[in-house]
Amino acid sequence: MTQPFLSVVIPAYNEEKRIKATLETVHAYLSLQSYPWEVVVADDGSIDDTAKLVAAFANVNPLVRLLSLEHRGKGWAVKQGMLAAEGRYRFLCDADLSMPVEQIGRFLEQEIEGIDILVGSRELAQSRRFGEPSRRHLMGRVFNLLIRMLALPGIKDTQCGFKLFRAETTAALFEQQTLWGFAFDVEVLYLARRAEFVVREVAIDWHYREGSKVRPLRDAAAMARDVIKIRWRLGARK
To answer: Of 166, 178, 195, 232, which is most buried with the most CB atoms under 10 A?
Structure first.
């Protein structure tokens, strides 16, 4: 079997209201591309009909597969999905498609042979945001500032859910990942920096979607604690 050029990895938890539409949109886009591809949905132990809907879709679309997991958190689902994927490049994609799927092309248009990780960014000069509440935006900017100060200077947006990894980079990083919460991005990128991988940001259009699993105050506090843990635990190993 031919190795996929691109794997699209979608972590999902209780996404029954939009997962079918997301899969239809992603499948339609990828079907127009010239390269071989696959879609891996890593279901984080959903208690609604997410897994059932994905399984039904995969049953008639063999390039889509379901990875059923016990519930541990988004970081856990991302880790398992990225390691289970088989593509030469592996694209992490949020289930809400807050970035239009067509913009995957922006990542592949880069000179990707010399880059290990491409990070979708909402904070570059060419980036555009649509419909985001001002309070949510402010909280995100404050958290990004904290991350740059404590762990990842120079990366303007670590938390955007759209990232492209080379297969070799994926194995090296995600096998070391230990955080299952929303700060897993910071841990993975911190590990990448420590390994001297080449990381670049790509400007994207980003649309705020209702129904986010992020609880701004509670999760921001937990993520801040995790960032401090990352800096203490991994920084000490340098």
So the answer is: 166
- 37-71 CB burial, b ≥16 within 10 A, e <16: bbbbbbbbbbeebbbebbbebbeeeeebbbbebee
What would the two tokens of residue 21 be? 């539409």
Q: What b-and-e string marks burial along 194-224, b requiring 16 or more CB atoms within 10 Å of the CB?
A: eeebebbbbbbbbeeeeeebeeeeebbeebb
The Cβ-side half-sphere exposure at 130, using a 13 Å CA radius, reads 9
The Cβ of residue 135 has, within 10 Å, a number of other Cβ atoms equal to: 9
Q: What single-letter amino acid sits at 24? A: E
Structure tokens at 204: 């994207």
The mean pLDDT values, 10 residues at a time, for the chain of 238 residues are 93 98 98 98 98 98 98 97 98 97 94 89 94 76 77 88 96 93 90 94 93 59 70 56
Angle (deg, nearest 10), helices 216-235 and 134-150: 10
Do the beta carbons of residue 49 and residue 19 sit within 8 Å? no
